[in-house]
Prior knowledge:
7-stranded parallel beta sheet; alpha/beta
Amino acid sequence: MNILDIPTPALILDRERFMNNIAHMRDKLADFRIPLRPHLKTCKSVQAARHILDGQPQSITVSTLHEAEYFLAAGYTDILYAVSITPNKLKQIQNLQKAGANISVILDDLEAANMVNEEAIRLGTVIPVLIEIDSDGKRAGLTADAPSLLNVARQLQEGPGTTLAGVMTHAGGSYYCKSTEAISKMAEQERNAITSAAARITKAGLPCQIISMGSTPTALFAENLNGVTEIRAGVFVFHDIVMRSLGVCKTSDIALSVLATIIGHKTDKNRLLVDAGSLALSNDRGKPIEDGSYKMGQIVDVETAEPYAGLWIDSTNQEHGLISLEHSNYTFNDFPIGSQIRIFPNHACITAAAYPQYYVVDGSDKVIEKWDRCNGW
Amino acid sequence: MNILDIPTPALILDRERFMNNIAHMRDKLADFRIPLRPHLKTCKSVQAARHILDGQPQSITVSTLHEAEYFLAAGYTDILYAVSITPNKLKQIQNLQKAGANISVILDDLEAANMVNEEAIRLGTVIPVLIEIDSDGKRAGLTADAPSLLNVARQLQEGPGTTLAGVMTHAGGSYYCKSTEAISKMAEQERNAITSAAARITKAGLPCQIISMGSTPTALFAENLNGVTEIRAGVFVFHDIVMRSLGVCKTSDIALSVLATIIGHKTDKNRLLVDAGSLALSNDRGKPIEDGSYKMGQIVDVETAEPYAGLWIDSTNQEHGLISLEHSNYTFNDFPIGSQIRIFPNHACITAAAYPQYYVVDGSDKVIEKWDRCNGW
């Protein structure tokens, strides 16, 4: 199948770039001898996971219990569900355990630890739990010096429905860094937080086997990972415009794109229309481009994936993308109606979630494989 | 099944509100004796369509060919595909025709009309085409006074691969109106554009049977629909925060919401976390609230759907929604970890697309039905 024969919009994955991105992360972590527990919320694909985990420990991170079920069915048993657990989800966790999963969950609250313990007892199971540590103030977790940290740790270790498996953190703050130097500092801040929390726990005589941190930026720009037992990262396998704007990847590393058809020439507005809109691209705004404006994706050549200078998705409706020719040297003649382009996404994880599959290409216009995805919850 | 037993995040549809919204649109259009060709891109659900079309002409509008296939399989044969057609999609159109569809398409360009004609001849079929008219400068279409309008019309009528079925427009500009009076004016602008275009075509001796306009705001606030043969609208069946902010609906008309679980208390930031993030809610920013900030959804009671004053989804990550308690009178005690809320979406069409089904409730906490959706392309 030729890429031009795929019904649009569609999700295109460049296998060579994908494989290079995996190799780059492996090389980076090999220097530190730290294993990767990839976050599969980005690819949500068994065929992609086979490559990411080839020859590596078969440990994975997921963001939904649906992902856990899907990857377990494919043979991945060592699973970290990295969104705070609540009692109403423990029956699903138990079902995963019964199906063979060694699944760990996270939480950051004493009341939650108590409730999870009680529900696990009621269900007749024991749940391994990591305590989430806040290393950047951006989302969830107890700070490493939080007074309640040891109470939560003790509750998890002593409650018969839970075991204390370790600590984890995610420095999403790295997405707001202004330079790769700042990302390196954020990685050190992340490492400091998680190892300090672990030290408090072990000093109190409690176990803390797993000391897990990670994000694609901090994983790739960390200079010191002493005391960390595993790294989690997800979007590094595809990269995207946000990662490029952070200096975390180059344009030629972006492996994911959306194939779209030129469906209109709005000549009185000097604007192209494509059949990729809010649903095909997502409404993730990413970061502003040089002129301060927000764009919804970058237009690249359908075969070479080379960017067209000055061409972006300026705005979207449900099934329409609008591309101004105003700030480019291109004309309507360069984009006949019915011809195709590809679009680099702002945020690969979110854009990919609209599609049931990847059309995998390998540096040419031939589709070599189709890989599936597990979306939803 | 009780609403509290649904795994979260999930899509909840209040059937009573949905039915009232349908009745309200019917009453409005009955005054003008204009039939509705509902845009099913919002609901994408056969079970929903049965109610929307109950006792009405069985004509529908779709935004993807996948919707066309899905609704055709359910018996809806009179279909308008309302996104500009291109030659590479005609094989799919022909397959729909062979399966029994009377499907019309749209375009707004002479070159496109030529290419569609040639490809239809090559395939051995004839495609009914409406010309898209630009009534608001927002997206696609020829203006009613465009010199090329009659050339396109003539090409469509004379090309053996096409027939000229009429004209259509969509006043998406109504989404930017500052008052319902402005929406009424926009409806008149839309009507003027589409009837002027039709008049030029018929004056040139060409047929123009269908004169189609519509958007939820202009359909509900039009004061004159003379000369129009059908109205298209979609989001009116669910409504959402954007429709409310336009004055097009009331809070008690919003029929769609996302069920979510409170997964964290970030006490040092006075913030709740829920398991509905970018994927569960979409990143559609909608319109700013009173203080000028953009929110990603409004928090409402899980059973009554009454809004909690001052509580919004302030920001999202892939699977996390963050809710500040700062500008409310609520405390963490009002939202125990593991308890549930519902969230009104900014833009119902986009939020719903993340889910394979609706859990339908009827003014209580009981799930009475599940309705499916056809997402993707």
